[in-house]
Design goal:
It is built from five helices and six strands; from the N terminus they run αβαββαβαββα. By secondary structure, it is α/β, with parallel strands linked by helices. It has one domain: CBS-domain. It has a three-stranded mixed beta sheet with strand order 1-2-3. Strands 4-5-6 form a three-stranded mixed beta sheet. The longest helix is centred in the C-terminal third of the chain and has 25 residues. The two termini are 29 Å apart.
């Protein structure tokens, strides 16, 4: 199964921010949108990084509450791991597990942002697949 299938079900909305956004404002965005990460878009419109709740926690633990007044650029992850709509769910699961990341921006063929996949999306998809297989097996067993 491909990531495009998950995006069809969940939608392609991606919340973004700029590198100059204050961390406290980012925290409010994460809370208001009920998401765990946002993509950071530079002045040129390209992906400049990604910042997650985990990045903020690390910043707080290392620098204290003063980090809330810092800019996103100081805490964001710059080497962003991405996938495409054609990537398989299995490949994305393996990538997330091996790199210990929970969010992957999905890129379109032209390199623009096409969506965001979270580990929760991947797990939900896998649970739905397992449930479907279980239902088919039950039907097969009871009809035979």
């Amino acid at each position: 199964m491909q990531i495009a299938t998950i995006l069809k079900a969940k939608g392609t909305d991606v919340f973004t921010t700029s590198p100059d956004t204050k961390i406290i404002e980012l925290c409010q965005l994460l809370r208001d949108k009920r998401v765990g990460a946002v993509v950071v878009i530079g002045d040129d419109g390209a992906i400049a990084g990604i910042i997650s709740e985990r990045d903020i926690i690390h910043g707080l633990a290392g620098r204290g509450a003063a980090v809330l007044e810092r800019r996103v650029a100081e805490l964001m992850t710059v080497k962003v791991v991405t996938c495409t709509a054609e990537s398989t769910v299995t490949d994305v699961m393996n990538e997330m597990t091996s790199r210990r990341i929970r969010h992957l921006p999905v890129l379109a063929d032209d390199g623009t942002l096409a969506g965001m996949i979270s580990i929760g999306d991947v797990v939900h998809n896998r649970l739905m697949e397992l449930q479907s297989e279980t239902d088919m097996l039950r039907t097969y067993i009871t009809s035979g």
